[in-house]
Amino acid sequence: MSEQETGISIQAQAASPAWIKIERARHPQRPYPMDFIERIFTDFSEIHGDRAYGDDEAVACGMARLGDDEVMVIGNRKGGSTKDRVRRNFGMPHPEGYRKALRCMKIAEKFSRPVISLIDLPGAFPGLGAEERGQAEAIARNLLEMSRLRVPTISVISGEGGSGGALALAVSDKVLILENALYFVITPESCAAIMWRDAAYKQLAAEAMRISAPEVASLGCVDEIVAEPPEGIHADRDAGLGLLGTVLKKHLSELMATPIDTLVAARQEKFRNIAQFYTEG
Questions:
Q1: pTM attached to this predicted model
Q2: What letter does residue 88 receive in the DSSP assignment?
Q3: CA-CA distance, 19 to 4, in Å (whole number)?
């Protein structure tokens, strides 16, 4: 499809505000979920394996403390060096990663520990092996089980929250999103490739998709936007991590003071109603 047919100039996208947000969410110095876990939580003790296939190194789960409270914390690993990124599959979980996360959520439920997940992934891994081992079923199982988990749950979109891969760790009582983070059903590049058959229209797609923190908050997909330092959390990690830690402690205290039956009912009602809309006639 040509620019003349669409009436759109790729050059006109250069100053896209949405793309500025995407660049901040993907900034190489932006903290990854494990950075948050190491700096905000203490006494992290990792749990390995899904007891079915193997240990997905793209997902880390373990017991930890948030202040004085014992919690189960889950985060995806993206890796630092190129070699480490390949080892961690660029942060995209296989089905055994989701099964490991669910196993740990069930351990948390057994010992009455709240579950906190930190998410920065463009989506679940779509490779042939992952599909053969039941990627879709693993995601669907997590959605079901998280919706009725009988402990307080909090999820944080800290960078990119992509599609069902992110949602499988985000069916929580409170879903928080950092100011420059994104929450989407598909990456802008993939959206542009589908809509215009040209990934060069990625900035236009980003504007149309409404994936920034304020936009997804207005749709009711998240419960709160967590402020970042003016130039982004990558520019002042200590300040940004401190802000998120304070918000997590506040929400955890509120959730732990709420009867569990009330939490589960409200959680299920919230996710049933997200993105509902009505038209006349």
A1: 0.89
A2: T
A3: 23
